[in-house]
């Protein structure tokens, strides 16, 4: 009929709706990227908390001497993070310093350079974490860090 106004659908351009389709294709990819970044950030935070707890336990051992129970308590309570444990338990050992770290030695033995073997404490801190993604991105569910300190 010549008197009817044209339909609004006739005014659509041939490229109408392309942006919505592009968004529908890209939105899941962007969401996966954002969730992966959040997951990696949370894992990094938990790793830093575990390292801080191990360092707290090592500091306690350096100040107060070796007492496995008290060191474990310092690890668990020192940072206020939830899910921390002093696992494996703190250990006392004798060792000699080397260029690559501390090598285990018999207490009282003489190390290279003529210095006697010294006492060290190894403090471990583990934190359990829950992933927000089912794929876990290959991240562990438990993160363990350690600190080693020489006793005075």
Q: How would you describe what is shown here?
A:
This protein is an alpha+beta fold and 152 residues long. The protein has one domain (16-150). It contains two helices and five strands, in the order ααβββββ. It has helices spanning 18-64, 68-77, and strands spanning 84-85, 91-98, 101-104, 118-128, 142-150. Strands 1, 2, 3, 4 and 5 form a five-stranded antiparallel β-sheet that branches. A hairpin with a 2-residue loop joins strand 2 (91-98) and strand 3. Helix 1 packs antiparallel against helix 2 (68-77). The longest helix is centred in the N-terminal third of the chain and has 47 residues, at 18-64. The protein is rod-shaped. The mean pLDDT is 88.
Structure at a glance:
With 152 residues, this protein is α+β, with helices and mostly antiparallel strands.
Largest sheet: 5 strands, antiparallel
Number of helical stretches of at least 4 residues: 2
The tally of strands reads 5
| Broad shape | rod-shaped
Which segments are poorly predicted (pLDDT under 50) over 5 or more consecutive residues? none
Helix content: 25-40%
Which features would summarize this protein structure in a list?
5-stranded antiparallel β-sheet; single chain; 152 residues; alpha+beta; 2 helices
């Amino acid at each position: 009929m010549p008197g009817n106004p044209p339909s609004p659908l006739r005014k659509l351009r041939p490229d109408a709706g392309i942006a919505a389709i592009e968004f529908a294709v890209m939105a899941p990819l962007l969401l996966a990227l954002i969730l992966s970044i959040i997951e990696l950030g949370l894992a990094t935070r938990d790793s830093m908390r575990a390292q801080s707890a191990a360092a707290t336990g090592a500091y306690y051992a350096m100040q107060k001497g070796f007492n496995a129970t008290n060191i474990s308590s310092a690890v668990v309570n020192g940072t206020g993070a939830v899910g921390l444990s002093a696992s494996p338990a703190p250990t006392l050992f004798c060792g000699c310093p080397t260029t690559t770290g501390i090598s285990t030695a018999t207490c009282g033995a003489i190390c290279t350079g003529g210095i006697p073997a010294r006492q060290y404490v190894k403090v471990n801190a583990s934190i359990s974490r829950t992933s927000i993604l089912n794929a876990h991105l290959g991240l562990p569910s438990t993160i363990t860090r350690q600190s080693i300190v020489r006793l005075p």
